[in-house]
Predict the 3D structure of the following.
Amino acid sequence: MKNILISSFLIVSGSLFFVINDAIINYLSPLGITFYHFVFYGSPVYLCVPLYLLITRNFKAKLKSTNYFIPLLRSFIFAPMPFITFIALKNMSLPEYTTLNMSAPIIASFYGFLLLREKINLYLIISLFFGLIGVLFVIQPGFDTFNPFFLLVIFSTFLITATTVLVNKYNQITSPIGFFVYGGIVVHLMSFILFIYDPLKINFNVFILIFISSILINSAMLIMTIAFQRSQKYYSSIFCLVYIQILYSCLIGFFVFGEYLNFLALSGAVLIVFSGILSIPSQYKQIND
């Protein structure tokens, strides 16, 4: 039970960091900042991790792997994600984008059943249902006309979920920090190259925003990696906690931006809370089945 609570806490914390990061990206997008500008200026945060390992002489111990192909494969799978995020948010509304991303827990359940041999239980099914309905109630997306970029977001959800499956399935091959560092290699190298061909000067205030966002997104990626690496036998159940990102967005919108929440949105927030609560017994049952 202790391991379940720790992993759940990590997911809940990481989800908050993701939401704040997305809000900053949404603010910066109209300023002409692309994903490689964002990654380039935020790279000092990522590079601090291997630098710290070098200074403390833990570089070899933390980055050693019994199979380097898996963490590097994960890096290539993750590489398109920042590009897809920026391009999608320019071609659809934020509610539509967020709703499509919340298909991740359902995709994770399929991965868990097919690749990780996890057993599906009633708690998990109800948790997924409450979470998905809660998301629709809170966001109330339009989806008035079909947008081909919807398919791009669904594809990206399959990719990002696949990176977490690799961490869970091959949890013994390297440390969480190893998965984190290797996972960022390709996207940072690609961003450096693209920045050389299309440099962009930014003011100090924008740099501070990118720097803060980079701290949040890198912290979220690391603690999420730790959570999914620990969650043996209950990967699909713990993924239901990702729905809480919508609750965070709802609360930030209400308290920070003064957004009005109608009865349907409040009902959706309650369903998301119930979804998270039900994921706990679902995790426990998956461990014991």
